[in-house]
Amino acid sequence: MGDDFTRLKTGITGLDDMIEGGLPFPSVILLAGGTGTGKTTFSLQFLMEGAKKGEKGLFFTALSEPAQWMLRFASRYSFIDKAAFGREIEYVDLAQFFSPKDFSAERQEALLEMIDAKIMEHMPQRIVIDPITVVGQFFSINYRQFLYDLSARLTNWQSVTILTGESHPNEVYPLEVAYTADGVIILYYIEVEDGRRRYIEVLKMRGTNHLGGKHALDLSKSGMSVQAGLK
Q1: What are the extents of the domains in the chain?
Q2: What whole-number distance in Å separates Cα of residue 145 and Cα of residue 220?
Q3: Residue 1's pLDDT is what?
Q4: Whole-model pTM?
């Protein structure tokens, strides 16, 4: 199809060729997968690709994990530049908003306003919220409305946002988040006869003639790379 979108490269070898050169800008992308599939690694590689180009990035964590602790493990990858954090990439902890006894409508609005304020402060081209599904654990009602509101705000800020979502054993991806996303990418770590193998699937990408199906995904010290066409 004709491509009149501006696109941001993911920095993941082989993936951009599957999606007409990169992720549509602006857009909200769900990156789904089970534990250990590489969602955070994918997200960091995406942010570091932007940092190399001088683009601003925001990494919102819902796990109450200090930046130093995250970087301690992430620094094993050769694509990580620690100096980019606090310079091109801002790390923001959202855990202060999560209390199972007091996640009221007012608290939800405060969370949205805090995200808005950080975006306004840094004006990033790339945003990650990791993982968005933690937020859903604190909602008894209105979770889908919150996701619609969040996606609308993120798109209006003219950025590409990756929302990571933990998949449960009985689902391929979190449905509530997928409904509001412009694209859905799924990471797999599947048990086979000789161990486990990693795969990636672009399930949905609006305005993009993407390559469907599962494709082999490698994870090494240099990061992720896709072997498109290799099953």
Answers
A1: 6-227
A2: 38
A3: 47
A4: 0.91
Confidence of residue 230 (pLDDT cuts 50, 70, 90): low
DSSP 27-72: EEEEEEE-TTS-HHHHHHHHHHHHHHTT--EEEEESS---HHHHHH
Residue labelled with tokens 């412009």: 182
User: What is the pLDDT averaged over residues 2-12?
Assistant: 82
Beta strands 126-130 and 223-227, pairing class: unpaired
Per CATH, which fold does 6-227 belong to? Rossmann fold (3.40.50)
What is the pairing mode between strands 183-192 and 27-33? parallel
Q: Is 184 helix (H, G, I), strand (E, B) or coil?
A: strand
Give kind and range of the element (H or E) at residue 194: none
Distance CA 228, CA 231 (A): 8
Q: CB-based contacts of 13: which residues, under 8 Å, 6+ apart?
A: 224, 225, 226
